[in-house]
Design a protein that fits this description.
There is one protein chain. By secondary structure, the protein is mainly alpha-helical. It has one domain. Helices cover about 70% and strands about 5% of the residues. The protein is built from 7 helices and 7 strands, in the order H-H-H-E-E-E-H-H-E-E-E-H-H-E. Helix 1 packs parallel to helix 3 and helix 3 runs parallel beside helix 7. The N and C termini lie far apart (about 60 Å). About 35% of the residues are buried.
Length: about 270
């Protein structure tokens, strides 16, 4: 038992060091490419924005990192370093990579055009602001934790479901606000689809599904860590999430292609033009 615990602690330290090096390199290279070699990733330039806004972000970005620090500290105290690393790194590697696939796939003609970020960040993770990944961590972790307080941590399925539902409702408020032309944090390119407050419905369904899957598996790692060790549990966590996410996005795409667009395409449920 003692040897297994020591092995878990060694893996925990190695995981922390590896993730730090990885993210420093990726964020450093991404930020350089975004500002100093924009042609490589075909970064759009917002010529309609005042020049003093480009490429500098809204003042709220430091606040996002501060809230991320508070949530991270809370997770560290409640769950330990290993589960904090899983949740935080998953916010970048799972949500970040998926958003980059949608953005860059549309930009390079591999998928239909989707959206792109404009003046929202200083530091970048490929073609999304690093603060977006931190924001996802804040919403997902805090909502799942509130659900645990309300219903008890042992009711994992219910907590993941309620946490994902709460996060989706926060996003229902945040996305129209931050993507509004007055803020112009990002631009939607999807046309003739069913929208709520000018945001495609599939965005909110994706938020709910992704957080539900992520939270359910993250909570399952508690069992995997105890019975199989941190190393094997980590591999299982990062293996199952992409597999289930592929199923989720396949269902969303088929729904968008054969149900949402044919029946509701072009409708925008909006209030006051938002």
């Amino acid at each position: 038992m003692k040897m297994e615990k020591e092995a878990d602690q060694r893996f925990e330290r190695s995981l922390l060091q590896g993730l730090l090096v990885f993210f420093l390199i990726v964020i450093g290279v991404s930020t350089y490419l975004h500002y100093f070699a924009p042609g490589i990733l075909r970064v759009p330039r917002e010529m309609d924005l005042p020049r003093f806004l480009w490429p500098f972000p809204p003042a709220g970005e430091p606040g996002t990192y501060f809230l991320g620090f508070l949530c991270g500290y809370h997770c560290l105290r409640k769950r330990g370093l290993w589960q904090l690393l899983l949740f935080l790194s998953g916010s970048f590697l799972i949500t970040g990579i998926q958003e980059n696939i949608w953005i860059l796939g549309g930009r390079f003609g591999l998928t239909p055009p989707t959206y792109y970020f404009s003046n929202m960040g200083i530091l970048w993770f490929l073609e999304i602001p690093a603060s977006v990944c931190v924001g996802w961590f804040i919403f997902a972790y805090s909502c799942v934790y509130v659900a645990e307080v309300l219903f008890g941590p042992k009711r994992r399925f219910l907590c993941a479901f309620i946490g994902a539902f709460m996060a989706m409702n926060i996003d229902l408020y945040m996305d129209p606000l931050t993507s509004h032309p007055l803020n112009h944090s990002w631009t939607w390119l999807m046309q003739d689809t069913f929208c709520i407050f000018s945001i495609p419905l599939t965005n909110f369904l994706g938020w709910f599904g992704l957080i539900f899957i992520f939270a359910l598996l993250w909570k399952k790692t508690e069992d995997w860590g105890r019975t199989q060790g941190y190393r094997r549990a980590t591999w299982k966590f990062f293996l199952w999430i992409p597999v289930l996410d592929l199923v989720l996005y396949a269902l969303l795409y088929l729904s968008w292609l054969y149900i949402i667009n044919p029946l509701l395409g072009g409708i925008n449920l909006t209030v006051g033009g938002v």
